[in-house]
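Page 37, continued from 36.
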């Protein structure tokens, strides 16, 4: 084989290696392309729906606080009355030590 033939064979083998590498890398590039497109779409949807979700979440939190207050209020009032009665009973029936 002459020097020209070796140069051509070298160039063809380099092009073949580049072609095989391109075939191996191409699916990864396609996957990254669609991942980026999906992330852009997800961000657009998040900007669209996130304020609505935050508003509903705030409404749920407010209602939970309101109902919790209504449920606990009688218990707190009963404990306060019990403490008041115990204080009055203690003041009436406990002996005071004279100094």
């Amino acid at each position: 084989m002459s020097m020209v033939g070796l140069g051509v064979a070298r160039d063809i083998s380099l092009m073949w290696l580049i072609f095989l590498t391109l075939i191996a890398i191409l699916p990864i590039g396609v996957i990254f392309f669609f991942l980026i497109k999906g992330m852009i779409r997800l961000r657009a949807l998040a900007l669209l729906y996130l304020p609505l979700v935050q508003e509903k979440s705030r409404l749920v939190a407010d209602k939970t606080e309101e109902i919790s207050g209504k449920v606990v209020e009688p218990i707190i009032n009963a404990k306060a009355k019990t403490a008041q009665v115990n204080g009055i009973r203690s003041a009436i029936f406990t002996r005071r030590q004279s100094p």
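The chain has a mean pLDDT of 90. Flag for discussion at group meeting. The first helix runs from residue 3 to 93.
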